[in-house]
Amino acid sequence: MVKDKRRPDFEFANEKVRAGERYTFNLEVPDLYTHTGLSIPVHVVHGKRAGPVLFLSGAVHGDEINGVEIIRRVLESPRLAAMNGTLLAVPVVNIFGFLNQVRYLPDRRDLNRSFPGSDSGSLARRMADLFVTQIVARCTHGIDIHTAAIHRDNLPQIRAVLDDPETEQMARAFELPVILNTQIIGGSLRETAEKYGVQVLVYEAGEALRFDEWSIQCGVRGIISVMQSIGMLRKRAPRRKVKPPFVAQRSIWIRAPQSGIHRTLLTLGAEVRKGQVLGYISDPLGYHETAVISTTEGIVIGRTTIPLITEGEALFHIASFEESTSEIAEVLDASLQQASDVELRPSQKRTL
Ligand SMILES: [Zn+2]
Q1: Are residues 61 and 196 in the same domain?
Q2: Do 225 and 262 reside in the same domain of the chain?
């Protein structure tokens, strides 16, 4: 008897995807209050040969849309035709927030604090439960794509717990200059995924409600590079020499010493010395002015973009490294310079 050596189908939402094929599913979520039906698109690429099962998630916070474009570009890569394993791409997880252009769900809850969720809890918990049971539980690896919250901007960075050697390998494979070795936030997708034994990275880059080309290009390149590292795609000889990443063990926010109008010249990736003036905050006429002074040395990995500030608000997110901050700032500047201009091209035609 000849044994069928074809890789088994991938079963999803009562359908099957054959090895070597790809398919888009619509995962139903609760209706809008108009009774209009709503669903989350999930694109499954089921490789011809066995391998890891990787999820890519975007817009878990509904207004963080860089990930939507990153996932679209990854799905266009012709290299997926020769992929091992299975890719589950979910560009818009929080469809409610995405429609309303806000971070939260209509019940004002944060989806990324509602995991693992439950099938009978709040809307946020139901959405979390759906994502966990349908996507996370099927996977071995995951990359969750975020941006800074509204009116903030983030330097492209990987956030991961580096105690786990496999996660560390994945984090380094993303080939970004900066990794933040962070603690896991309670109720986050990352926390639940790790309980399921799924290796997860969080990629943070750019602003809410904006596309940022540097962040998008770093994200697409990083995901392809991680897919090579975990054996989903064949490794290619590197076209450029990649420096090993700098790992920050801690980071702090410099907060506003008083309310007022904030002026700064500091950009993402800039180096900061302890005691340095980072900006000035004054009343609208400039009578009562206070300097914003850094209490630490490091690199600016996040900043507020709105000048209208209330005392105590977070202004600059500064990461501390063991390596020389000047060297890191130079590497970051080179990375920014490497980002090419956007090419406006039509999407590839796909049947489903
Ligand atoms: Zn987020």
Answers
A1: yes
A2: no
**Same-domain pairing of 174 and 254:** no
Q: What angle do CA 235, 240, 242 make, to 5 degrees?
A: 85
How far, in Å, from the CA of 327 to the mean position of ligand 1? 29
Distance 342 CA to ligand 1 centre (A): 24
Instruction: Classify residue 15: in a domain, yes or no.
Output: yes
Phi, psi values for residue 262, rounded to 5°: -100, 130
Q: Is there a domain that residue 160 lies in?
A: yes
Cα–Cα separations (whole angstroms), residue 285 to 288, 293, 315: 8, 21, 21
Cα-to-centroid distance, 144 and ligand 1 (Å): 9
Block means of pLDDT (10 residues each) for the chain, length 352 residues?
78 95 96 96 97 98 98 96 97 98 96 97 97 98 98 96 92 96 93 95 97 96 97 85 90 97 96 98 96 98 98 98 94 90 80 54
Q: Please state the domain count of the chain.
A: 2
Q: Largest Cα–Cα distance in the chain?
A: 90
Ligand 1 center to residue 64 CA distance, Å? 6
- Three-class DSSP category at 318: strand
170/287 same-domain check: no
Domain with 297, as residue range(s), is: 250-321
What pTM did the predictor assign?
0.95
- In the reported structure, the alpha carbon of residue 73 is separated from the centroid of ligand 1 by a whole-number distance in angstroms of 20
Ligand 1 centroid to Cα of residue 149, in Å, is 6
